[in-house]
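Run SDR family oxidoreductase through structure prediction, thanks.
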Amino acid sequence: MPCQQKRRLATSSHLGRVGAAADIADAVAFFTTPDSRWVTGQVLEVNGGLYLGPRASLHH
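Sure, done. The structure for SDR family oxidoreductase is below.
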């Protein structure tokens, strides 16, 4: 991905950055632990808030 496009995505993201492979790996790793033993039939959306809509500007 070109740097300019990556910066634009990062500034519009709720977390202020684009996702990384480690973000997905951490979510997958959770399901390998006993902490996930009561999680059944779920879809875990790992998208950094993408579905929340556009990030609000802090400048008025």
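The chain has a mean pLDDT of 85.
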